[in-house]
Amino acid sequence: MADEPGEKQQKLQSALQDYLGVRHIELVTNGHMALELALQAFGLHGQVITTPFTFLSTTLAILRSGLTPVFCDIDPETFNLDPTKVEALITPQTSAILAVHVYGTPCNVDAIQRLAAAHGLKVFYDAAHAFGVHLRGKGIGGYGDAACFSFHATKVFHTAEGGGICLPDADLAKRVAELRNFGIEDGSQQGTNAKMDELRAAMGLCNLRHIEEEISKRARAAARYRERLAGIEGIQLAPILTGVRPNFAYFPIVFHAHLFGASRDQIFDRLAACGIMARKYFYPLTSVLTKRSSRWETPVADAVSRNILCLPLYPDLSLNTVDKICNLILQSR
Ligand SMILES: *Cc1c(COP(=O)(O)O)cnc(C)c1O
């Protein structure tokens, strides 16, 4: 239809292409539909190797597209899919890898690409946490056959609800645009209604004007957390990898209770009692959505999920509050 996409949506699309440094981004109603439409545009069959250490949406997108998730364990330092464990899970039914740039930390994209090329697999990234992240000077949305962003209100950049699919291929971008609008034009694929509306696109244009300032305010709070908590025995922080421009979306910390002297759950309760809402993110693992198979044992993801806590982090978080949170954590031992 001639009125799709609308004027604000087109403006936001081109502003995001510039900001994210990607060839094409197609805007949709939310990050979850971005994942579903990306998988569906490629007409995949069979199994998709993925991580259980993510939000439910990643696993649900696979299931709802008629595909079977196969869970691969994660790297204990980055919390991302561990490429050294992928090969053992590949079968003749495997058609793709769907990895997540967890907490905005880029996956090992080179190793994943090598595996995909060697086995003829497509590569998808759930980049819901990674808005504005760059790897080796290139926008994170430019890696893989498709990368999906969420613009939900809880994310670094938002349109209240919204999402975007980045694709290097113009024909596939067109197919995604077709799928989000019922497949009305060519009718060759059953589409859905996943359009972004003009109100949200307008909100996105406003929010995008402030994104650099928002990220630098997040960086300030994150630096204070790091200063206070780095090097403390039993506390593990997420790495800042070389060649990465981070977005400071989250401040996850893993408590090794036997070394720190208090468990994740004890710290969560202590903070909650003082009115501070940290999040057990991601707990439980998304593999609970499927029947567990012994082939999918993921001991690293299980352990991280039981011991990780995301501390409050948002642009207007004051350094005083960061200090108060750190004091509570350090006094919990
Ligand atoms: C937020 C999120 C999604 C889903 O995005 P919505 O815009 O809420 O639909 C998917 N995957 C991850 C990892 C997320 O954090």
Describe this structure in words.
Helix content is 37%, strand content 16%. It is α/β, with parallel strands linked by helices and 333 residues long. Helix 4 links the parallel strand 4 (94-100) and strand 5 (122-126). Helix 2 runs parallel beside helix 3 (56-64), helix 2 packs across helix 5 (170-180) and helix 7 packs parallel to helix 11 (319-331). The longest helix is centred in the middle third of the chain and has 19 residues, at 211-229. The chain is globular and about 65 Å long. The model has no long low-confidence stretch (mean pLDDT 96). The site of pyridoxal-5'-phosphate (PLP) has 14 residues, from helix 2 and helix 3.
Task: Give descriptors for this structure.
alpha/beta; 333 residues; binds pyridoxal-5'-phosphate; 37% helix
Percent of residues in helices: 25-40%
If you compute it from the alpha carbons, what radius of gyration comes out, rounded to the nearest whole angstrom?
20 Å
Query: Helix/strand-derived class?
Result: alpha/beta
Shape category: globular
Average pLDDT score: 96
If strands are numbered along the chain, what order do they take across the biggest sheet? 1-9-8-5-4-2-3
Alpha plus pi helix count: 11
